[in-house]
Specification:
Helix content is about 40%, strand content about 25%. By secondary structure, it is an alpha+beta fold.
Length: about 160
């Protein structure tokens, strides 16, 4: 009898999780486009080679604009940036759990992550190129807000990008 209850509860939780994951989310940063980023002295290009589902989620939460803004700020803060440099960030890995996933399953839902190939150029020549990533497992039964988790993930990622200089 107990195993039947556990199975029913597990199936119910999974059904709720999958239903919540497919529900559209209106994220406050989603309206911010890459063009809204103020013109800066940092030549920063963000591209993505994500699969369709990941690319949709990436766009939905406004991740590109956040990466662009925070990476530019991190690069500027190093004091090593000069006008002859440019950087290309090619995002090839992105996952931001929905609030429902975090609240219902917590740490068992996996981690939020972002990964990219980053190339640093100076006078048109590649001076550094490597894989940069960030991972976060924030959340729990209370669940961290999606915008806070995105901000923390992208901040860590931007700091890792700035270490390339």
């Amino acid at each position: 009898m107990t195993t039947i209850r556990i199975r029913v509860l597990t199936l119910s939780a999974l059904a709720l999780l999958f239903a919540c994951e497919s529900a559209p989310t209106n994220h406050p940063d989603a309206a911010a486009s890459a063009a809204s980023s103020s013109a800066s002295d940092i030549a920063l290009t963000v591209e993505n080679t994500l699969e369709k589902k990941q690319a949709n989620r990436f766009a939905e939460v406004g991740a590109e604009a956040r990466i662009r803004d925070l990476a530019a700020a991190s690069l500027r803060s190093t004091g090593k940036w000069d006008e002859h440099m440019s950087i290309v960030v090619t995002v090839d890995e992105f996952r931001l759990r929905t609030t429902a996933q975090v609240a219902m399953v917590g740490i068992m839902a996996g981690a939020d992550r972002i990964g990219a190939q980053v190339a640093l150029y100076k006078d048109g020549q590649v001076i550094n190129q490597q894989k940069v990533s960030a991972v976060s497992v924030q959340g729990g039964m209370v669940g961290a807000k999606e915008s806070k988790r995105l901000e923390g993930l992208v901040t860590t990622f931007a700091q890792n990008v700035a270490q390339l200089i």
